[in-house]
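Model the whole thing, not chain by chain.
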Amino acid sequence: MTTLKSLTQTAMLGTGNGFTPPTLQRVRLPDDDPEASLLTAAAVIGIGEIGGQKPLQLETNVQACAAESSLQMPERAAGLLKRILMGEFEALLPEFLQMTAAGGLVAPPETLPSLLGMSRSELHPLILPVIGRRGRWLAEQNPAWAYALERETQDAWELGTLFERAAALERIRASEPGRARQWVQAGWEQDAPEHRAAFIATFEIGLSMEDEPILEACLDDKRKEVREAAKRLLLRLEHSRFVQRIWARAKPLFRLKSKFLGGDKLEVGLPEDLDQQAKRDGIGGPALRKKMGEKANALAQMVSNIPPALWSREFGKPPEKLISVAVDCEWKEPVLLGWQLAAQRTRDRDWAEGIVIFWATQAEGQQILDLESINESILLMRQEKVEALVNATIMPPFSELDDKSLLIPLLVNYRHPWTDRMARVVVHCAQRQSGKYGYNLPAALPAFALYIPPELAVEFAAGWDEEPKGAWRENINKFLMILNFRNEIRQSLIR
Amino acid sequence: MPRLTVDQVRNLAPDVAAFNSGQGLADARHWTRLGSNDAALWGECKGSGKEPYKVRIDLSNNGSACTCPSRKFPCKHVLGLMLLSSASPTRLATSAPPGWVTEWLEKRTARSQAADKKTEPKTSHESRQKDTARRAVQREKLAAAGIEALENWLRDFARLGLASAQSAPAAFWNDQAARMVDAQLPGAARLIREISALPGTRTDWAEVLLLRLGRMFLLTQAYRKMDSLPIPVQQDVRALLGWNVNQEELAATIPGKHDDWLVLSSRTDEDEKTGLRTQVNWLWGKKNERPAQILNFAFRNQPLDSSLAPGLVLRGELVYFPSAYPLRAIFKNKQVERSVFIPSGYPNLSTFLDEYAAALGNNPWLDLFPTVLEKVVPLQINQHWFLRDSQNQALPLDAQFSSSWELFALSGGHPLTIFGLWDGFHIVPMTVWTEERSIVL
């Protein structure tokens, strides 16, 4: 019997190559007109087929999802979420998800595929609390979303993907760090080196001296990633053998001379013999900075692996003081660079603040310090310190925020919520300058809008110059749009 | 008129740039003398000119006017005012409208009333009849030539074979479409443009193409035998070829259907080549339990009717264009209703397919069959999506449909009611009802 499909196969080649018309039940096709026959047959057979088709029989069953236990987010909030998912104010998604989770709400079902499908894994921990029962049900149906399934921790460790196993380790570390160590040691031989490094990294959670032996053993591992991961954790343990070894090398090189009539002087020597042990501890390896000499690099590497709090304790001086005397010493570059990296690696807030203030207020700071990672130090700063810096810089009518001031990039990279007070000081300062041409300050406004309290959106709508110049006009609009949108989000999620 | 949502404003915008500029103006600090009443919204917006621009919006049909020199319609000031009123309606306090708003509203009502009134014919009834007859004869001659050209093109296509379609240059389709437009057969031109997009886009493209070509051939044969066809079929043939129906005459002569009509979906497509924007609106009648399609057209930046928002219920009289299976319609009169309803659909797929077969029997050229299916569950088997009914029977979803997972998430494994379009091969879902809400996809 001729079907549309079989007719199509002939039709692909065309009637020019010969065509025998099929016999149809109710229509007589011409014998001498192949084109008309083909086209007419196509219409008759085709319409007959689509008109006469029967549906498929499908016995597959889908397990229906249980009713949602959490409350759906209000419709207005859902509308805002959909706009964010379509690309408007993408940067606000993390805040939105946090506020939704804080309210115990879940996202509407039609947004779940977009949320679950987010490739940026740093969003996953924010997404999981808001997907609800429907989200987990969906994740069961699509292997690409398996990360959202809450597998039993042990199962996840034994059978899961790398992502699942690392997540399982993180969960176990929070409650039973010892068990995590056991698991990692048990699977050490079979696991791939890159995986081992990822597992060691999870020991950051609940890190303690009990982890020291396994980490010290990792320093002998064949793979660099494992050794680096171990070092990154060991340097946070002041009493570890690793830190003590390096401290023993570094301490004798430093001497702080206190002069009676003022002016401390820091004398620093370069390390001499670097033996095999030193190399094992990461000293003398690839240069931290190419322009520094070999020994200066070694000094920097040593200092960068010692918790900086040891120095303040040793010399009995606060970080700002030590940093300022270091500026006058011969080997300031390796010392300050080392202290910056050490502060970042150990999350030492006092030292991070000292380093950032040095960077923001002194020209040398921008030459000596590592600018690529200065943001990490900025993120460690305490709110009060940043606010104090702002208040010290912006004191109308005596001093305003200069467009070239490093306080601007500092504020841009200080990705934490601002206080009302600080917001007012900075925004009023910007408003006063909006009538003049500017470059960095207007460009920074949209970034500020992400962390200023959104309740101030209405207040900040007024106060700008009547005729904002140049870059101000567009950036003021963006600033207000972001702030207003964040305010709408906040209002829509309040119950 | 319910307050416009951001999505609706986005649809009204002539392009993305205007919408974005509108968003920038959706802040009260750009506006003075804002106000509103039941009929309109208004305000003055500071722009780059000396005087602020006067902006007004007619709430009964979202018409608008602005004194700015922009050629876009609606301009960014209108869009900004719409967004502002949507986000912060309290900013537009109820007040007495200024003179320039009342004048404008009055002119609008006068204009629409004048259009409703029948104008007095200047020439005599007899001479007008002769004119019409003469034009009709000329039209037929032109069309006959066009039909012949179309038939020859189809025959050539059949001879060369469908494989040639994949590598055919754009001119192969465009030249023929242009010839159809010259012959005053814009419907035929549209059909050609539609099939030109087929090769390579779906696995069964060749079958669908052959069926369409066969149907077009049937159309040419039907045209030749026009007088021997039943009247409804004649009307379908003419409609498909692109004969314009006089809508005023239609509304005046044919009785319409009174009902509550739910707007199910509204989609606008722009043909890049011709600049023609087509707005396809699907509605469902509550009592009549049948669909209606309303088409609106506009060129490039011209405004399109913005009163058919999905989810809206319009109570009024709808007149169907004559056809063996009537679908396309126009409103004779309508007003917005507060209530909403869920359309009642086919209880299972067998019943639905039986109806489809009957419809095809009436109009073999039926392209898209609008349908409401109840109690269906979407599910996926080997990367293909289906809708399964309560009797475990299933039909495939269109492979190009991009929101299958969203549909699946909305169902959660529970049955849904779905409005969609069936083309004989796949379903394209357009609107979904769960137990709690309705969502337009």
